[in-house]
């Protein structure tokens, strides 16, 4: 089995600086062939001024899919939910789907969140199967949307919504074709999805749940489950500027990946973050001390 793959990362303005550090850890711990950073032209110009690894490729987000652009998605979302909402959350999901139809897509590609950093070695294949990291999240609205798009029900008792997902390109294209066969007048699957948005519920579509449940129904022999140690709320304790090698070294003892989400920073004052940080360092110290004594 050829297990070579690329990584794709949709990058919003809030993660432009963080992703320049992240790609170094991705190369070290995941070892993809290429890393595609998919973002706006403004962000591409910013990233061009940074020293990036040789295997990083910058792609214009509005050229990934001929059927959709950020401006179009943002306009439709604002019309439905109001001016305070952004289409970016939906658009980055569409990019992960539509990448399968580009000239860049190989047999596999790993969709990876820009604010999630792999700090230990992570593999994504076992023999001839993709490894999936199951989660406990459940959102009924996601499955209502899947039923409308594909006429299938929830297939498993866990969630595919992790901070990454290894995608089989042929399965993703097969899913796109299934949705396309049910368009009912909409020009593209993305228009179809946007037409089903629930006015009173912004969080009503997940590309990971849609693809994962499709794969579980039609290709259950293509993947198997494994548990990764993830620290999604790391920013609450360390902030977003986690660049101290000593901190990462300590975190490696307990976690395979950490997420530095901006929303956690907004909820956590700096004093609270520093207090949590020193509590964690104290616990790590006593744990090491116990190991030494034992």
In terms of topology, how is this protein built?
Layout: E1 6-10, H1 16-29, E2 35-39, H2 41-47, E3 56-60, H3 70-81, H4 88-98, E4 108-112, E5 116-118, E6 125-126, E7 129-132, H5 140-150, E8 164-168, H6 169-180, H7 189-195, H8 207-218, E9 223-225, E10 230-231, H9 235-238, H10 245-251, E11 257-259, H11 262-267, H12 270-293
Parallel strand pairs: 1-2, 1-4, 2-3, 7-9, 10-11
Antiparallel strand pairs: 4-8, 5-11, 6-7
Q: What is this entry, summarized?
A:
The protein is an alpha/beta fold and 294 residues long. It has twelve helices and eleven strands. It is globular.
How would you portray this structure in words?
- With 294 residues, this protein is an alpha/beta fold.
- It folds into 2 domains: 6-228, Spore Coat Polysaccharide Biosynthesis Protein SpsA, Chain A (Alpha-Beta Complex), CATH 3.90.550; 232-293.
- The chain has 12 helices and 11 strands.
- The chain has helices at 16-29, 41-47, 70-81, 88-98, 140-150, 169-180, 189-195, 207-218, 235-238, 245-251, 262-267, 270-293; strands at residues 6-10, 35-39, 56-60, 108-112, 116-118, 125-126, 129-132, 164-168, 223-225, 230-231, 257-259.
- A 5-stranded mixed beta sheet has the order 3-2-1-4-8. Strands 5-11-10 form a 3-stranded mixed beta sheet. It has a 3-stranded mixed beta sheet with strand order 6-7-9, with no helix packed on it.
- The longest helix has 24 residues, at 270-293.
- The radius of gyration is 20 Å and the shape is globular.
- It starts with 5 loop residues before the first strand and ends with a helix.
- The relative contact order is 0.13.
């Amino acid at each position: 089995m050829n297990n070579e793959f690329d990584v794709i990362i949709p990058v919003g303005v809030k993660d432009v600086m963080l992703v320049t550090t992240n790609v170094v850890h991705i190369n070290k711990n995941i070892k993809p062939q290429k890393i595609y950073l998919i973002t706006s032209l403004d962000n591409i110009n910013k990233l061009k001024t940074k020293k990036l690894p040789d295997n990083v490729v910058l792609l214009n987000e509005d050229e990934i899919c001929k059927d959709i652009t950020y401006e179009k998605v943002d306009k439709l979302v604002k019309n439905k939910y109001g001016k305070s909402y952004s289409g970016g959350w939906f658009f980055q999901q569409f990019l992960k789907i539509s990448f399968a139809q580009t000239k860049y897509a190989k047999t596999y590609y790993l969709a990876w969140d820009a604010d999630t950093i792999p700090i230990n070695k992570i593999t994504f294949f076992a023999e001839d199967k993709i490894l999936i990291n199951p989660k406990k999240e459940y959102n009924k609205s996601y499955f209502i949307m899947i039923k409308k798009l594909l006429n299938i029900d929830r297939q498993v008792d866990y969630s595919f919504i992790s901070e990454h997902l290894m995608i089989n390109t042929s399965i993703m294209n097969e899913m796109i074709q299934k949705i396309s066969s049910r368009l009912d007048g909409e020009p593209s699957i993305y228009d179809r999805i946007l037409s089903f948005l629930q006015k009173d519920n912004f969080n009503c579509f997940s590309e990971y749940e849609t693809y994962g449940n499709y794969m579980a129904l039609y290709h259950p022999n293509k993947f198997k489950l494994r548990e990764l140690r993830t620290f999604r709320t790391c920013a609450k304790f360390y902030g977003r500027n986690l660049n101290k090698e000593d901190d990462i070294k300590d975190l490696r003892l307990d976690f395979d990946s950490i997420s530095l989400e901006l929303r956690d920073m907004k909820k956590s004052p700096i004093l609270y973050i520093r207090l949590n940080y020193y509590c964690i360092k104290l616990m790590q110290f006593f744990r090491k001390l116990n190991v030494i004594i034992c």
